Amino acid sequence: MASASFSGAAAVSDLLRSSCNSVNGEAFPLRSLGRTRLGVGLRRDRRDSDAGVVVAKIRKEKRHDYPWPGTNQIDSNAKGGQLSYLSHFKPLKEKPKPVTLPFEKPLMDLKKKIVDVRKMADETGLDFSDQINSLETKYQLALRDLYTHLTPIQRLSIARHPNRPTFLDHVLNITDKWVELHGDRAGYDDPAIVTGIGSIDGRSYMFIGHQKGRNTKENIERNFGMPTPHGYRKALRMMYYADHHGLPIVTFIDTPGAFADLKSEEIGQGEAIAHNLRTMFGLKVPIVTVVIGEGGSGGALAIGCSNKLLMMENSVFYVASPEACAAILWKTSKAAPKAAEKLRITASELCKLKISDGIIPEPLGGAHTDPSWTSRQIKIAILEAMDELLKMETPILLQHRMLKFRHLGGFIEGEPVEPSKKVNMKKKEEAVVPKEHTLADLNLEDEIEKIKQQILNSRTEAASQTPDPGLHEMIEKLKEEVDQEFTEAARTMGFMERLEALKREVAKAGSSAEKPLDSSLKERIQRVRQEFNESLPQYPNFASLNYKLNMLKDVLKAKKASEGNDKALSLKQEVNKALKSVLERPDIKEKVKLLKSEISDAGVLRSSDVDAGLKERILKVKREVESQVATALKTLQLSVEVVAPKADIKSGVELFQQPPYADLGEEWKIWRARLPRGSWTRSSQRTSTTK
């Protein structure tokens, strides 16, 4: 905190007359003083108690965060020009989280299951592409059927979707240049209504629309798209401005209604809406209104008195929300679906009643699934409507707008019906339109589970599955095609004659193991091969040759790996069979049985308690078993090496703990189980088997 004092003879105005004054001997610039607040007070100076002293206190203020960036950060080629930097509406830092509506959950679950099935198929390496493509086609049919037969309350939930594009999202997508205008010239700027001037294809328009937030923070700032009287007066000012300068007006409706708090009613909410209604019927410029979300009551109509009213496919327009209507008529908001159906709030119903003049299509799933495409459709619809309205003279334009609203609600009464007939008249049943591709009819869940089971079964069958007999034919065909491609490449690039000459020389030399090729001939062959490989990429059909060559390599590699796995599996089965035949021999069984009885009779609990004679008999039986196993394995053309036991073996009983062929199959467990439990520990003798 800085302070400056001066004598009472000087006035505060003296301080402000010059750009730099000396206060207590220090230079103080007026420019910095002008940005501060002055706290002025009187106090007594210690040296001169009679003289009054004025004190100016300079307070540090928080700098205002203007939207305009630094000079070095401005992109002169930015869409909308440099004035676009003035807008507070910036791209979101985080992508909005996907929101699934209640009626979308069954389809979303099916989509996840289809993704899981595709992953399972990729993991197994089997081809289930046809089945998965069929599932996805049926899923798309079910999705299309769902969104073409939405109920009114479901369309209302899409119109209220948190990720639905807002007014500014569409305006920034469809305009070439855009500048936002603020304020109602009475000291207020309602953020729930946004106004500005934008150009489309070289023609300027005045845009006015309700603005909702894209997240909770923005919704609070925008008051959830519910304007106060200040917002409607701002819109009214821009309408006068557009009428004065001849700018066509485009309004966007997306509000649940005008803000109905006590303060808004006190400052004239109804008067502001009524003033807008009266004024819009007298504007001499074309007006087009687009309902992009929900249009609620007078809050929507205050900027909706137009020549053309266009509605998005999943937008709604109502005098009271279905929840409020249900609470009034049926005393519960749970009847909202019934109220939505009776109110006829959807675009298709309002088109039949001649309230809406057209429907703008949306992508499957709603506008939030593809905002750019939706904005393009809005742009096309606006330009078509404006091209039609701009051809009208001013009196015809005003008459057109008046007649549009005068015709609303008209109906023709039918001929009178006799009471007796009226009593006996049966209500006409509505025609039921069959749904060809409903979710229940398609049985997608059953098909997904069926394909999952097929993939799981294929996993178990993959190991034992024999190679395809057509695989060899395919490999031979690929080899022939590759040879033909190489021959054609050599002929095209002029190597054919040199290769034929080398071939004749090699045949003439008659190479063999005793008589190798001449070193000069080898060098020539190597040189021609190198030149051919370097020139091969210039071959016109090199891409096809390279593709076939890589395919042949992959197929041969896969075949080799498959044959290796099959050989290993068959070898394991043969080894187990040989081991089982040895262990099942009657003499071996008898000897093992005798050893078990001897160990049991001796009451041996630890290996150190075994006497020398029993150890010797155990070692003898073990060597005999090893010899028989080695002989059986040699019949399988295996090289068997028996490793001699270590000299420091503590006990022969330990040799039965881990025999050398323990990892060759389940038969070792059978043989080991025949020995008494607790009478042996880990073995130190090993037998290694190598192919």
Concise description?
The protein has 691 residues and is an alpha/beta fold. Helix content is 49%, strand content 12%.
Judging from the principal axes of the Cα atoms, what is the shape? elongated
Helical fraction: 40-55%
The CATH topology of the domain at 154-407 is 2-enoyl-CoA Hydratase, Chain A, domain 1
Mean pLDDT across residues: 75
Contiguous runs where pLDDT drops below 50 for at least 5 residues = 1-51, 61-68, 429-441, 646-691
CATH homologous superfamily placement of the domain at 154-407? 2-enoyl-CoA Hydratase, Chain A, domain 1
Q: Evaluate the radius of gyration.
A: 46 Å
Structural class, by secondary structure, is alpha/beta
Q: Main sheet, how many strands, which sense, barrel? A: 8 strands, mixed
- DSSP strand (E) fraction? 5-15%
Number of extended strands:
15
CATH top level of the domain at 154-407 is: Alpha Beta
Q: Architecture of the domain at 154-407 in CATH?
A: Alpha-Beta Complex
Q: Please count the helical segments.
A: 26
Distance between the termini: 91 Å
Structural account:
By secondary structure, this protein is α/β, with parallel strands linked by helices. Among the domains are: 104-149, no CATH class; 154-407, 2-enoyl-CoA Hydratase, Chain A, domain 1 (Alpha-Beta Complex), CATH 3.90.226. It has 26 helices and 15 strands. Strands 6, 7, 8, 9, 10, 11, 12 and 13 form an 8-stranded mixed beta sheet that branches. Helix 3 (105-124) packs parallel to helix 19, helix 4 (129-148) packs antiparallel against helix 19 and helix 12 packs across helix 13. The protein is elongated and about 120 Å long. Mean pLDDT is 75; it is low at 1-51, 61-68, 429-441 and 646-691.
